[in-house]
Here is the input.
Amino acid sequence: YHYFIGRPDQSVTTTNMFSRYEQQLRVMTFMFDSHRYDYLMSLPKRQKVYLVHDLKQLYAVTSFFVICGKDNVKARKAAWKTFVKHCKEIDPKLNRILKYRSYVTWINWLPWCIKSWIGSIAYKVLAKKMKLGA
Here is the structure.
């Protein structure tokens, strides 16, 4: 079962996800804390590829919902910086993979306002292409 965020007949919409960015950060923090680089590299190849891919997707979704929200920008910046700092301290190797080899790597070097603008446009294009949401 695939739960596509943004469909009008579901309880979870993009508006709700933007307003609940802290919950998304908690989920990503939990996922990051429960996986370690050394453990992932010791797994069989297919399982390792699957878990790293899953973490990259979750990192991309989390960064999108935190960065692209229009309300409470200062709190969002602070929460994202705290999350990134936490990841660097806990497991620098896994953090490097998620930050520099994920789907949103290109957005990491942009100023916050440009990240938000580009992220919003990218989501609209992908949502239209993939027929997500209304």
